[in-house]
Amino acid sequence: MDRTSRSPGDSWDLASSVGATATMVAGQRVLAHREGLIDDPFAEPLVRAVGVDFVNRILDGEVAFEDVDPSFTVRLAAESMAVRTRFFDQLFLDAAAAGVRQAVILAAGLDARSYRLPWPQGTVVYEVDQPEVIAFKTRTLAGLGAAPRVTHRVVAVDLREDWPKALRDNGFDPSQPTAWIAEGLLIYLPSDAQDKLFDAITTLSAPGSRLATERVHDVATFVGGRPREITDKMRELGSTIDMEQLVFTGERTNVVDHLGGLGWTVTEIDARAAHADNGFEFPDNELTASFGDLSYVSAVLG
Ligand SMILES: C[S@@+](CC[C@H](N)C(=O)[O-])C[C@H]1O[C@@H](n2cnc3c(N)ncnc32)[C@H](O)[C@@H]1O
């Protein structure tokens, strides 16, 4: 049963509701950057600019992961985010090597790939997210003197609405192959919006397009039991995020099957194998059993 407090048309900034989760994962990217596992110098200034106290206190070492759960450490948080960041970076690097020159970052949040990846000349990157999220990031990075390393177009629209029209209105060309990522997004979409998202992506994708996303095997693992205890502990320590209220736990289509049915050639790798591929040991404990039950999905349209 969904316990979500979400409603059709709800909106947020980077400090509230679903937006705060973007700040939280960017905070994890700061840790991965500090550990030398990824190169994202923009994560920390962005997170600091948002100013979510709990996240800042993690970065300042005032809240220890071990206070939340004894089995959790900065290093583990950094490694799991490095696995994720490298996976989505690779989709764009592979697409670029294959000659794809159009990219879309769906639900971009505080993603700084437009500012940090080595995009080939002539590439256009579209970033899609809610208006306040996209405006804040673009304004903050401009204020820091950071310039995108690519032709960069922001599309402020809700992904439950007619985002394909907004994308086209901003110059997107469906006759060109496109590299798409939807990172950390699906659990925040109702199941019908997830289905429509991939149907629309497919309609907009010329042959040779590529796509990466994740599959959370059961969104209900975010609800009740140990995850509930973790959320409560984090809230005691000052967090304002309550995952139970933000995700949609009802039945949803398996994205791998869905994409396969739409003609994509799909590859799936589970988090454990993805950790191993990066030389990291997948932590075997109750916490990761709850939160780590996901796989990374990439696809190519023939
Ligand atoms: C966990 S964050 C991930 C952000 C980014 N992809 C990353 O991995 O750092 C979830 C993001 O999804 C965006 N999002 C969720 N539902 C959305 C919707 N219906 N329309 C637009 N953006 C949405 C949020 O604004 C937020 O930036």
From TrEMBL:
Gene3D superfamilies per record: Vaccinia Virus protein VP39 (3.40.50.150)
One record GO biological process: methylation
Enzyme class (EC, first level): transferase
A single GO molecular function term of this UniProt record: methyltransferase activity
Protein family per UniProt: Belongs to the UPF0677 family.
Function: Exhibits S-adenosyl-L-methionine-dependent methyltransferase activity.
This protein's name: S-adenosyl-L-methionine-dependent methyltransferase
Organism: Mycolicibacterium arenosum
